[in-house]
Structure formats: C-alpha cells, structure tokens
Amino acid sequence: MLVHPSPIDLSSRTLRCLTGRLAARRGEIGTRWRRLTANREALLALTRLRCGDVYAQLAAGFGSGVATVYRYIRCIREAVDVPAALAPILAEAMDTARTKAFVILDGTLPPIDRIAADTPYHSDRHKRHGMNVQALTDPFGRLLWASPALPGPTHDLTAARTHGIVDALTDADLKCWADKACQGAGGSIRVPFRGRRIERWPRRHNSTHAKNRCLGEQAMATLKGWRLLRKLRCSTNRITAIVQAVLVLHHASA
User: Fold this and answer.
1) DSSP 121
2) pLDDT tens across the length of the chain (254 residues)
3) How many whole angstroms separate alpha carbon 70 and alpha carbon 235?
4) Which of 120, 201, 227, 239 is the most exposed place for a label (fewest CB within 10 A)?
5) How many CB atoms lie within 10 A of CB 225?
6) In degrees rounded to 5, what are phi and psi of residue 71?
7) SS in 3 state form for 27-85?
8) Strand, helix or coil at 140?
C-alpha cells in the first residue's frame, strides 16, 4: 500500500486539549499501560473524525496493522466519549445565548450507512438515510449547541419541540431566526413567509431574514468539515456522542 502523509487542518491546541483529557481519563480509571500513548490516541481519533479515514488508511498512516487498529477501536470510542461529556446542555447554551442579540436555529441530516429496509432512518425530503440534528449558533455563526440525534424522518419542528428548544427560547425571551421548516413554532422563533406570490413587504422581510440566517448555514458547513459526519458508518446510538464530541473539539480549535 502506498502511504502519503498529509496534514490535518486542525490547530495543535486541539491535539493538546484532547491529549490532556485522555491522560486525565486514564488516571481516573487507573490505566497502567497501553500500546498507544495519550498523544497518539488523540491523534488517531482526530484523524478518524476530521479526515474520515477508514481502518486500512489509519493502519498505514500510523505504521501498524489493520488488526491493531481494530483492537484500538476502543480508544477511538473513548476519545469520542471524553470530549462528548463536556458538550454544553441546552440550559448552558441558553445562558450563553442570553448575551447575544439573537440566535440561529438550523437542522442538518448527517447521512448514515443503512439499507433500504431501514425505513425509520430514511428521510423522504433528503432522499437518503440519516439522523436529524438541530444546532444553535450565535449572530456571528459560532456554534453554541448541538442536539441529540433523532431518526431522519423527524420533522425539524418536531425535533425542536422534542428537545425543548422552542420552550427554552420563549422562556429566555430570545429572538431566533429559523427556516420555513419551523413554521408554526410560535414564541420568539421567526421564520420567512411562504409562497411564491407574496407582496413586496414580505419579500423584503424574507431577504433580511435570509441575510441573518445565512451565517447559520456557514456554521453547519463548518460542522460538516469533520468528514466523518459526511457518511457515518456506525451504530445510530453512537451518533449523538460523535456530534457532541465534534462540537467540543471545534470549540477547542477556535
């Protein structure tokens, strides 16, 4: 196999942050010895998350066999669970959001590897299998919070209500810009007017709304910069932890 080392577009701060967390975790559980140091374990996990490399590529890049990578899949899970535990909950995100002029609510559908029989995960709107994830960003497009993952067919408004986002925004009296999928949410959530034949004033409102909400789209694109989220080949029970770990590591690299 040809090996071509390539850089990972993350700051060294991210590696140091994850290495420190993993080293602390090893101390908590009393780990005596592992083949991979905390630094190498963190680098392996970041390579998997950021670049989406498969096990054969990871084995070639780290100079080990594929069987070794399979044995150390536990390390990748640990390197995901440790930062995921630090992800902010919705109440903490609301405390941060109260200092902002408004927030942006947007949803995304990370695709998953499923067969046609897995209809609970198939989204007719996106024509693929996936998991529904809602995210809140500030006016500058910085990610504040990411929700637990729900099956792909879940409507964005249903997901927002399930996670308590609508009630939390109303209680905080915080303005929120969302897309047309949140029509009927009420409270402080603002959505564009629907329909093609609308008057001039609604058109101006939609234009202003799109300008305010576009930064949320950029934040979602930043989230998908972690290539593992472009095609998840794992249990659906692990996707929430992966998304939350990516959120924490993204903040660490900022």
Assistant:
1) G
2) 444 456 788 888 999 999 999 999 888 888 877 777 888 888 888 888 888 877 788 877 777 777 777 776 666 788 899 999 999 999 999 999 999 889 999 989 999 887 666 678 888 888 888 999 999 999 888 899 999 999 999 999 999 999 999 999 989 889 999 988 888 888 888 888 776 655 665 777 788 888 888 887 888 888 888 888 888 888 888 999 999 999 999 888 77
3) 16
4) 201
5) 14
6) -65, -30
7) HHHCCCCCCCCHHHHHHHHHHHHHHCCCHHHHHHHCCCCHHHHHHCHHHHHHHHHHHHC
8) coil
CA dist 209 to 136, 141, 212, Å? 16, 14, 5
Structure tokens at 60: 């070639």
The helix/strand/coil state of 137 is strand
Question: What is the reported pTM?
Answer: 0.86
**Domain limits of the chain?**
1-85+236-254, 90-223
Q: Report the helix count and the strand count for the chain, using DSSP H and E.
A: 10, 8
Token digits of residue 190: 């603002």
Backbone CA torsion sign across 46, 137, 189, 128: negative
| Rounded Cα distance, 137 and 150, in Å | 19
244/119 Cα distance (integer angstroms):
25
Please state the φ and ψ torsions of residue 241, each to the nearest 5 degrees: -65, -40
Structure tokens at 144: 């504040």
Q: How many CB atoms lie within 10 A of CB 231?
A: 12
Residue 123, token pair as written in the block: 């989204």
